[in-house]
Structure formats: structure tokens, C-alpha cells
Amino acid sequence: MIRVAIIDHEYHSLYVGEIDEEILNNKYGGSEQKYIEDNFDLRDYSWDYIVDLTYFPKQFDPIDINYNKL
């Protein structure tokens, strides 16, 4: 699995998704960009790989998101 974060700049939204490498390689020639274009209806966006996520609430301690436990 490849985990990506996609930022929708038009609506200021963050999407985090896991892409099956077999599907990515067989259907999209290994291109994450083509996968995103085919599976998300976005106009103005950017994306990158992620390996860790921490959320920083305003009045609480940071929260680490462990994808392996989801």
C-alpha cells in the first residue's frame, strides 16, 4: 500500500488514502497522479506521500494517528 495526502486547494480539504500498489501498477502504470485524477474530482490540488500523521488540537496535546490500528 502507498499512502498519500491530497490537498484540495479549492475547498481547503485534506484527503488521506491508501493506494493498492498492484492496482496502481496494473491500471495506472505506476502513476499516482493518474490514479488521483481517475478517482477524485478535483481541480486545484497537490499531493504527496505520507508515512506519519499528527493532529494538533488547539487546547490539547498532539494526537498521533496510527494507520496500522485503524
In brief:
The chain has helices at residues 21-28, 32-39; strands at 2-8, 13-19, 45-49, 53-55, 63-65. It has 70 residues and is α+β, with helices and mostly antiparallel strands. The model has no long low-confidence stretch (mean pLDDT 94).
Overview of the structural elements:
A hairpin with a 7-residue loop joins strand 4 (53-55) and strand 5 (63-65). The chain starts with a strand and ends in a 5-residue tail after the last strand. The chain has one domain. The chain has a three-stranded antiparallel beta sheet. A two-stranded antiparallel ribbon has the order 4-5. The relative contact order is 0.23. It is built from two helices and five strands. The chain has 70 residues and is of the alpha+beta class. The model has no long low-confidence stretch (mean pLDDT 94). The protein has helices at 21-28, 32-39, and strands at 2-8, 13-19, 45-49, 53-55, 63-65.
